[in-house]
Design goal:
The chain is mainly alpha-helical. It has one domain. The chain has six helices and two strands. A two-stranded antiparallel ribbon has the order 1-2. Helix 1 (about 5-30) runs antiparallel to helix 2 and helix 5 packs antiparallel against helix 6.
Length: about 230
């Protein structure tokens, strides 16, 4: 599956989920009652959006970096995190389930958010120096998620643990925000490079250049192809 097709599926799915949630909320308003089931369904749609985004970013990263541990982790955690959060929503939130149900749900949320942050940072990084920054951000995110889960399941977390946790998440988010900014800065300051030959046919070459050339506007899913004209010499 190409990145364009995957991106299109993700955005269509996100739009469908948002529309469904809006219609459900509108129906509840017109009905004059927001039921427990309405809340569960909206929560489920939100989790589908989060888990689907995590899976899509993981697949996009794996397409670009085949053996990326971050991508494989995100792909594996997406369905697991979804299942954990759904358990928390349907077993606890409106029914007053067991004491551990909310912990299971929040564990899933932390896993999905952490995987999404780590994978997004790596996907946005192209320059070698920024790839290292993305890896550092991924490690901080994994550590922050792990500490968060430990605190969730601990009986009496102290204020020191809370401060350490907040610090880890701040640095993890900082890495995610810095990667695209520095990537843009690096690209803007780069000196125009030479030409790259993308394809050739006889004595004709398709060249990528920063100098004089054409700038074709391709429709989504279209690609350039070099071929000999039918009936040509």
């Amino acid at each position: 599956m190409t990145r364009v097709r995957l991106s299109r599926i993700v955005w269509i799915g996100a739009a469908a989920i948002i529309v469904a949630a809006a219609l459900l909320a509108l129906a509840a308003i017109l009905r004059g009652d927001f039921s427990d089931t309405d809340g569960r369904i909206i929560g489920t749609l939100a989790v589908v959006l989060l888990a689907g985004g995590t899976l899509a970013v993981g697949l996009a990263l794996r397409e670009r970096v085949e053996n990326s541990v971050t991508a494989l982790a995100a792909i594996a955690l997406a369905p697991i995190g979804f299942a954990l959060v759904e358990y928390g929503i349907w077993d606890f939130v409106f029914d007053g389930g067991g004491d551990d149900a909310w912990k299971v749900g929040w564990t899933g949320v932390i896993a999905l958010v952490g995987a999404l942050i780590a994978t997004s940072a790596r996907l946005l990084a192209h320059a070698p120096s920024l790839v290292r920054l993305a890896h550092a951000s991924a490690l901080l995110t994994a550590l922050a998620a792990l500490v968060s889960i430990v605190i969730i399941w601990s009986d009496d977390p102290g204020s020191t643990e809370g401060k350490a946790l907040a610090t880890l998440w701040v640095f993890a988010a900082l890495g995610l925000l810095l990667v695209p900014v520095l990537e843009r800065f690096t690209t803007a300051g780069a000196v125009p490079s030479g030409e790259r030959v993308l394809a050739s046919l006889g004595d004709v070459e398709l060249v990528a250049t920063r100098r004089a050339g054409i700038d074709p506007r391709l429709e989504p899913g279209e690609q350039l192809a070099l071929r000999r004209r039918q009936g040509g010499s």
